Amino acid sequence: MNDPHRDVGALTFTANHDPACDDAGLLRRIGQGDEDAMAAFYREHGRVVFAQVLLVVGERALAEEIVQDTMLAVWRGAGSFRGESSVRSWAIAIARRQTRDRLRRQRLRVVDDAFLADQPGPGPGPEVMALDRAELAEVRGAIRELVPAHREVLGLAFGSGLSLPEVAGVLEIPVGTVKSRLTAARTALNRILDEKGQNR
Q1: Across residues 166-170, what is the average pLDDT?
Q2: Contact of 91 with 24, CB cutoff 8 Å
Q3: pTM of the model
Q4: Shortest CA distance to 147 belongs to which of 115, 178, 194?
Q5: How many alpha carbons lie under 13 Å from residue 167 in its C-beta half-sphere?
Q6: Top-ranked range on mean pLDDT: pick from 10-24, 135-149, 182-196
Q7: Contact between residue 14 and residue 45 where contact means Cβ atoms under 8 Å apart
Q8: In whole angstroms, what is the distance from residue 159 CA to residue 17 CA?
Q9: pLDDT tens digits, one per residue of 88-118
């Protein structure tokens, strides 16, 4: 069996989404106890969910555990999916709750909105300059240095293929706050790359 987590990168982790795969239909089948549908769901969304969790927790083994918990929650909760969001954003929202709960249990500090509100205002997008001027490995390293909330919003907005309203739904915050967090994350990324001498 292929490992869907193999070679997952911080910026290049979007899975090839098969448009022929009916996500809502898969969830209906999962809700009826269809293990083949669950396996198909995992193949379709597991890699993106794993990459998003890994961005937040930064530890592969912990991310794998959280993805397992997430898929178990999908198995148990598939029948409750109401179709108010995309299936992918629903699964990522479950993963985010699983991650938050695990981090709380481990008593790790998670950055709150008050901290993000104090971050610098809008400016040019350094991720574009970073990708143009730095090696991808160096950018990945810089992203790993970001606080969890910044890694999370960058991953959702640029890696998971979600729209800003979907990101807002996953994070349970207004779209304007998503934009502010993205700006803060971009600024922090730019600062890290400047300190490393990669953003010339």
Answers
A1: 87
A2: no
A3: 0.57
A4: 115
A5: 25
A6: 182-196
A7: no
A8: 13
A9: 889 988 998 898 888 777 654 444 444 444 4
Compute the distance between CA of residue 39 and CA of residue 27 in angstroms, rounded to an integer. 11
Torsion angle in degrees (nearest 10) through CA of 137, 140, 145, 148: -160
The rounded Cα 90 to chain-centroid distance in angstroms is 12
Residue 197: per-residue pLDDT: 67
Q: What is the mean pLDDT of the chain?
A: 76
SS (H, E, C) the chain: CCCCCCCCCCCCCCCCCCCCCCHHHHHHHHHCCCHHHHHHHHHHHHHHHHHHHHHHHCCHHHHHHHHHHHHHHHHHHHHHCCCCCCHHHHHHHHHHHHHHHHHHHCCCCCCCHHHHHCCCCCCCCHHHHHHHHCCHHHHHHHHHHCCHHHHHHHHHHHHCCCCHHHHHHHHCCCHHHHHHHHHHHHHHHHHHHHHCCCCC
Backbone φ and ψ of 111, nearest 5°:
-65, 135
**Polymer length in residues for the chain:** 200
The model's pLDDT over 68-91, given as tens digits with 9 standing for 90+, comes to 999 999 999 988 888 888 888 899
